[in-house]
Amino acid sequence: MAKQPGATTNSAPNFSDDPMIRVPKAAELIAERIRRRIVLGELKAGDALPSESDMMGEFSVSRASLREAFRVLEAESLIEVKRGAHGGARIKLPKDEMAAKSVGLLLQMRGATLKEVLHARLIIEPSLARALAEARTDEDIAVLRQHLEWERTHLNDYKVFALATAEMHRILVQRSGNVPLALMVGMLDDIFRRHVTQFVARSRADQLELNQASLDGHTQLVDMIVARNGEAAEAVWRRHMQRVKDVVIEELGETTVLDLY
Amino acid sequence: MAKQPGATTNSAPNFSDDPMIRVPKAAELIAERIRRRIVLGELKAGDALPSESDMMGEFSVSRASLREAFRVLEAESLIEVKRGAHGGARIKLPKDEMAAKSVGLLLQMRGATLKEVLHARLIIEPSLARALAEARTDEDIAVLRQHLEWERTHLNDYKVFALATAEMHRILVQRSGNVPLALMVGMLDDIFRRHVTQFVARSRADQLELNQASLDGHTQLVDMIVARNGEAAEAVWRRHMQRVKDVVIEELGETTVLDLY
DNA sequence: ATGGGCCATTTATTATACTATAAATCCGTA
DNA sequence: TACGGATTTATAGTATAATAAATGGCCCAT
After folding, report:
1. Closest to A109 (Cβ–Cβ): which among B39, B75, B170?
2. In what helix (H) or strand (E) does residue B5 lie, and over which residues does it extend?
3. Pick from B82, B89, B72, B61: which is nearest to B32 by CA?
4. What is the spatial distance between Cα B156 and Cα B85, in angstroms, rounded to a whole number?
5. Strand, helix or coil at B38?
6. CA-based radius of gyration for chain A
7. Whether pTM exceeds 0.90
8. Which has more pLDDT, A155 or A254?
9. pLDDT at residue A14, rounded to an integer
10. Element (H, E) at A1
11. Is the dihedral of CA A175, A102, A67, A16 positive or negative?
């Protein structure tokens, strides 16, 4: 039987991979048990974990092992630990930025480009615009209109308007109702933002013009959503995002994703 | 000035967030420095880090702090630590599964449903089919054809065919050339697979029929890619994935994503 | 050659001590 | 009584040392 085609993910050399049995370390086991209690809802955000000495007894491990477990959960953004009286470990609800960090790391190591990140959003978001247009509620409309108003009143303030633009995308993605996709776009946005803010945040000479174009695009989208015209909403939004992408690429080139560190 | 609309990501209570200054812990600083050296390429996959005692000297920290840093990097899947002679920490190139784990955790906590995960792929993949069709090389064709052949010869072996099906999606996504999107789909696939394998992996009565339908879909896609017909490739693939989604949903219902743990 | 046993290396885990931090409390003064 | 500052105290942060366990290499006897 021939080897199945395309079996290698990439051309990386085959370092002794995972097949071997792994002896779980104490810290991992502890982290796993605590994590389980969190995702199962036994521990809710804001809850305090027992003190280190208590947990040492509960898990029958040394303080060192317990603290190693804490570092792991902290890295996963599942807990945060403060010191001082009434300090200790508290459950925290992890935010998108966390996942975005892992993904960004992976993308950077794979040499993904900024262009690709923008293109990914360009692929995803128009579909969400369509979905929202086809399933919108009156509340969606209200929120979108209110947001447009906000953008209109800050057309000149390029910093506020930049925020508003990002917020528009967020509203769209969030209200389209698909949690995984919303997370994906959120991560891509986070990566994009972390990348560009490392570079100049200056305003362009034609900033007002650009802002006006953005506002137009947003307005057209809302119109199509109001009209429940999914097809048109998708088209409008794709055109809009293509323009945005072109501007950004023109500005920053097609360098590799480099933001973290 | 009115509060900007839709500012809250979700209705979570506002626990004392990040605004406070954070005293970085020794372990975090160490992890950061090592991570930096990895992403900057100073340390390549397979390289061995110095022994713990050496690094204690290099960073001027205690063994405990150093080991906490190791646990963090281990959790990020950037290193792996073996003990014994010639053991120690070695750089490892992180795999998709890592990011998938964080994302899956987040999705589970947000109550995302299996249906949504499938729908996300349904949104993304057809666009990739189109992109590949429009930019395919002869090598792409060769790989795809070879894969189809493989599927054809294993139509009856439902376990192998299931693998082949997943592989088909992977080839498509990988060859479409967008690293971030490939990663996204890869993660969704990983989450999907981890979820379903917790349930029955039994074969259905009409398995052969289903397999044949899948193979037909795949064949049609490859035909359209060969013809460089992006429009049709996208349509074919959307229809195919919609069918797959329907079958899975019918089988498993619309329960929440629950896979980890 | 092959297998067994010893040894050096290196992480895993534990134990203990000391330090740093921050909340809570107490107390004196206005 | 109200305020502000010193003190107490619970808690995590770091350091050090000692022991356990795993791993790989080496030598030797068969």
Report:
1. B39
2. none
3. B72
4. 48
5. helix
6. 23
7. no
8. A155
9. 37
10. none
11. positive
Report the distance separating Cα B216 and Cα B194, nearest Å.
Answer: 26
Check: CB of residue A101 under 8 Å from CB of residue B106. Answer: no
Q: Which residue has the tokens 């945005």?
A: A244
What's the DSSP call for residue B154?
A: T
- Protein CA B196 to sugar C1' C3 (Å): 47
Helix (H) or strand (E) holding B60: none
Strand B88-91 and strand B79-82: the pairing is antiparallel
How many C-beta atoms surround the C-beta of residue A24 within 10 A? 9
Q: At what angle do helices A179-196 and A114-135 cross, to 10 degrees?
A: 140
Structure tokens at B7: 């500012």
Whose tokens are 């480099």? That residue is: A258
Q: Which long-range contacts (CB under 8 A, 24 or more apart) does B38-47 make?
A: B38/A109, B38/B78, B38/B91, B39/A105, B39/A108, B39/A109, B39/A260, B39/A261, B40/A261, B43/B91, B44/B91, B45/A12, B45/A13, B45/A15, B45/B91, B45/B92, B45/B93, B46/A13, B46/A15, B46/B90, B46/B91, B47/B90, B47/B91
Contact predicate B196/B252, CB 8 Å: yes
Q: What is the pLDDT of residues A235-253, one digit of tens each?
A: 999 999 999 999 988 888 8
**Residues A175-207 pLDDT 10s:** 999 999 999 999 999 999 888 876 656 667 788
Q: Kind and range of the H or E element at B123?
A: helix B114-135
CB atoms within 10 A of CB B207: 15
Question: Is A154 in contact with A207 (CB distance < 8 Å)?
Answer: no
Per DSSP, the three-state class of B48 is: strand
Residue given tokens 């490392």 in the structure block: A198
The H or E element that residue A113 is part of is none
User: Would the Cβ of B22 be found within 7 angstroms of any atom in strand D?
Assistant: no
Nucleotide nearest to A65 (CA to C1'): C13
* Residues in CB range of B208: below 8 A, 6 or more apart: B155, B156
Q: How does B45-79 read in b/e, with b if 16+ C-beta sit within 10 Å?
A: eeeebeeeeebbeebebeeebbbbbbbbbbbbbbb
B63 touches strand D (CB under 7 A): yes
On the question of pLDDT at A10 being above 70, the answer is no
Q: Is A252 left (phi over 0), alpha (psi -120 to 50) or beta?
A: alpha
For the record, the structure tokens of A2 come out as 């021939």
Within 10 angstroms of residue A94's Cβ, the number of other Cβ atoms is: 19
Contact A183 B99 (CB under 8 A): no
The tally of CA atoms less than 13 A away on the side-chain side of residue B249 is 14
Residue B22, CB, strand C, below 7 Å: no
Q: What is the DSSP string of A115-146?
A: HHHHHHHHHHHHHHHHHHHHH--HHHHHHHHH
Residues 36-95 of B with CB under 7 A from strand C: 51-53, 63-64, 67, 70, 81-89
| Distance of alpha carbon A37 from alpha carbon B142, whole angstroms | 49
The total of other beta-carbon atoms located within 10 Å of residue A239's CB is 14
